[in-house]
User: What shape does this take?
Amino acid sequence: MSDSQSNTFQVDFMGKRLIAMVLSGVVLAAALGSLSYQGLNLGLDFTGGSLVEVKLAKKVDPQTVRGYLVDAGFTNGTVQTFGSDEDLLIRVPPQEELGVTGQVGLGDEIFAALAAEYPGIVLQQSNYVGPAVGDELAEDGGLALLTALLVVMLYILFRFTKQFSVGAVTALAHDVIIVLGCFSIFGWTFDLTVLAALLAVIGYSLNDTIVVSDRIRENFRRARRGTPIEIINQALNQTLGRTLVTSLTTLFVLLALLFAGGEVIRGFATALSIGVVIGTYSSIYVAANVLLLMNISREDLLVPEPEQDGSEDGSYP
Amino acid sequence: MNHDESRPQENGGQGTTLLGAPSRRGPMNVFPLWKNILVATVCLLGALFAAPNVFQPDPAVQIRSLDADAMISAAQKARVLAALDKAGVAVIGVDEDDGSLLVRLQDEAAQLGARSLIADTLNDNVGDFVVALAQAPTTPQWLQDLGGKPMSLGLDLFGGAHFLLQVNMQDYIAGVVDNSAEGMRDKLIDERIRFLPNRNWVDGQTISIGFRDEATREEAKAALVDYQDFLVQERESAGDLILRFTLTEDKIRALEDRAISQNLTSLRNRVNELGVSEPQVQRLGRSRIVVDLPGIQDSARAKEILNKFANLEFRLEALPRARKSQLETYEYQGRMQDIMRRNIVTGNNVQDAQQSYDPETSQPQVSIELDNEGGRKMHAATKDNIGRSMAILFIEQKPRVREVVRDGETIEEYYTIEERRLISVATIQAALGFSFRITGLSLREAQDLALLLRAGALAAPMYIVEERTVGAQLGDENIRRGWQSVAIGFALVLAFMIYYYRGFGLAANVALTANLTLLVAIMSILGATLTLPGIAGIVLTVGMAVDANVLIFSRIREELKNNPPQMAIQAGFDRALLTITDANVTTFFVAIILLSIGSGPVRGFAVTLAVGIVTSMFTAILVTRALVNLMYGGRKLESIKI
Assistant: This one.
């Protein structure tokens, strides 16, 4: 198969751009709808409160454990299994009446109460996040996302043209919203690691978009004839092999993380896996589509009278 | 498309005519020798500095003196080893380093027993040593001498507790202003400078004192010249002449710095009593402190120790002629005791405190040593007050949270309630100096008081706002699972590349291996901490790093249609370079943003991502190129498989 790869793709990507637009529109609407109605299932990092993970010696019904906790006076905790049946996760929302120091000790009290009931119990982790810290983390996270988008937009504006800049940022926002939408629709926990994954999605999708954009620009400059749709189609086909291979290798490692990495990293791996798939799609359809919508033409990409060494478009800051 | 300036030494001035006849010196696709040597050297250095991570550390017990200057004597070392030998604990080595002793043990099971045995042997009289569980690196000495060291493991991989503490600066500043106002009042009374009677001197960060005439105000200004933390202004209001003392923003910052650094010192002292081998206590931002306790077994006890928000004040008993405004009243042993509002010294001035016994009466007592400033103040206050009582006031801050509405928004606000009680009232027998004793306590009281004084008081109240504790078992599991996913992901990618790109795939795989090695080496050299998200970052780097190679290879495939193989290889590398740089620079930006804004797990991920981008650019562009050149360059090729 090795020799047959290069440039054998002849897919009319842009011919189906209307279908893609409708598809993206529907998925985006669903994601935004779920985000505004249902919101995100925010993790401890953002809500504040206490979380205790324990490993029991043998399988126990979470409801029984909850019963013990209620008896011991912890009425508003939730108990769920985590990964395996022996692993339990107990989450308690912020308790204002306990004061600042009271809540810090809550995890220890819960563990002590359970230890009395279940010999052989092991404390896996115990987390407490104060309400102010939770708000801060959420704020910083949102700020990081927006800053990333803005910096990307400026860099591409500087390196390419405004059409590419708008296209790339649209593609990124598209990816981020859809990944967020998945977390909202399926009610998966959104914590700090998922936020990091989201920023990595931006990095990854951007990588993809730039590779495609680079080729589109090159082809526009080289082509003497052909409509923008034909030129873009050609560029997409030329980069398709690379796009697929890279997405595939990245997905390989993400699947390794997803299945071998354990519970703690699962949210991260899930977000990135979805992001990689969506990011691959968006670099083909969303970014290129925006170029057409913004009427990109050969003139936009012509290099101003090249200098002796032609360093105009190749220079780096 | 332009690539010239990136490799001017190889194809200067060819520009878009690359597809035409090559006009170059020497054979195609051959690196000059220096470049091959450079690439090989970097890779070898990478392997060298990544190597320490391969050596499994020995379980060990660390012994460290609490007093920074004191060393562990040869006699003490011998005693420890003798005790271990007697108990049948196998010791495989002893390292000495910066005054601390590292006893290497055969296995982890022996660690706990050895620790308590050593602690008992050394601390038979007083607790002068920290004895902690530790990991002793097994990096060979010559590698250590070169600066090679393994990455340190984050708490999520090693197990341990992480705390974020918020320092309540508002209360602290208010306390400083209050105490200064008291001091000023006393000073003016002592110097017989008349001021206008007014209860409310203090308003936020300003102290206002009214005077009847200009001359008195000048006198007062001269008398209060010591209060240099304040900006002094002269005002007039309703015919009164006011002397206004305001804490400036600079001064507040300075006070905050002072408070934080003192809290840090005191926290370090307290944490030392926990027996952790490498505790980290650091300032974070303007008013926060991070405490990391790797490998701590009992996080509840750590919390107890950190959560003590107590301070002590030594104050004189109030004499009957004292004015109401100068004294405060507390209950002490069933009676009401009047004491002066102004303190002589606080717990901050205490350097050491030990519980001992009075040699004459055999009653428990606490021996206290003050620092220079404290000793001077104590002497000045007590020399004229022999026979009068001195009280020790115990002040405990209990943090609370409440909801308040500000600007129409409901926000959480932290505040502290203060509990004050007298823990001792004792008669001054002689003028006191740097060291003195407090008698008349029960044994329990004496022990508690000594511990509190020794552990150091906090300048400003603090409370825990975040805690993350990971059990050792979960840490082990995280690290095992983390490396397992790196291995699986790495193997999958290697297999795919060979299958898809054949010979070129082999080059890419060597480059990928070099990439992983360099990544680990740089992280080790930087002294970065490896966390689980960090491992995720490594995995992701492995997956994404091949991208650069894939870009190059697919470009070569395309060029092969119109060009002979050597030209195609040349053009493929050159043309992909710009794309690779563009794509990586933007991803690098994202990593930097993550690093600067993110916290905790996000930072761990960002560090590996950023380093991974740098190493993967180096390996994809230079290492792969060097290998492809060695495999294919400089000879006539009919065709290549790619």
